[in-house]
Amino acid sequence: METKQATAKLRHLRLAPRKVRLLVDLVRGLSVVKAIQQLENSGKQASRPLVKLLQSAAANAQHNHKIKEETLVIKKITVDDGAILYRWLPKAMGRATPIRHRSCHIDLVLEGEVETKEVKKKEIKEKETKETKATTGEKKKTTKVKEEKTK
Question: What span, in angstroms and rounded, lies between the C-alpha atoms of 69 and 67?
Fold first, then answer.
C-alpha cells in the first residue's frame, strides 16, 4: 500500500509553548482516533485547539489525498515559539517589570495509506450496475405504457 502525508498548521496560538508541549508529547505517534480521545479526556486548556487541529488535518488527508481515516497516524508534531507580547506591571519605587504573554506555532504531519484504485474500480462498477438496473426498469415501464396506448 502506498502511504502519503497530510499537514496542518496552527499559528499564533495564545498559549505558552511549554504548556502545549505537555499534551503534544502525550499524543505523538498515536493514531488520530486515539489521540483525539486522549485529548478530549485531558483537563488542559491546550487540548481544545489541538483536537481542532487534528480534525482539520484528518479532513485534509481524506479530502486532498484520499487517505483512509482508520490508517492515519501522527508522524510528526512540533511546537515552536511564536511572538511574545510584552506588557508592563508597575512595581514599588517607580519600577516596572515585564509580563511576557507567549504564543506558539504547531506543525502537524499525519501519515496514512491511500485508497487503492481497485477499491475505486469496485465502487464505480457497483454504481454502474445500479444505474443500468434503474434505466432498464424505466424502459420496461415505458414499453408497457406504449402497449396500453395502442390498444
Answer: 6
127-145 pLDDT per residue, tens: 777 777 666 665 555 555 5
CATH 3.30.450.20 fits 3-115, yes or no: no
Please state whether the predicted TM-score (pTM) of the whole model is above 0.85. Answer: no
With 80 as the cut, is the pLDDT of residue 12 above it?
yes
Domain segments of the chain as ranges: 3-115, 116-151
- Residue 32 predicted with pLDDT over 70: yes
Q: H or E segment at 30?
A: none
DSSP 8-state code for residue 72:
-
CB contact at 8 A, 7 and 53: no
- In contact, 4 and 115? CB cutoff 8 Å: no
Q: What is the pLDDT of residues 41-59, one digit of tens each?
A: 999 999 999 999 999 999 9
* Strand stretches in 2-138, DSSP E: 3-13, 73-90, 96-113
Contacts of 83 (CB under 8 A, 6+ apart): 12, 103
Residue 78 vs residues 66, 72, 73: alpha-carbon distances, Å: 24, 17, 15
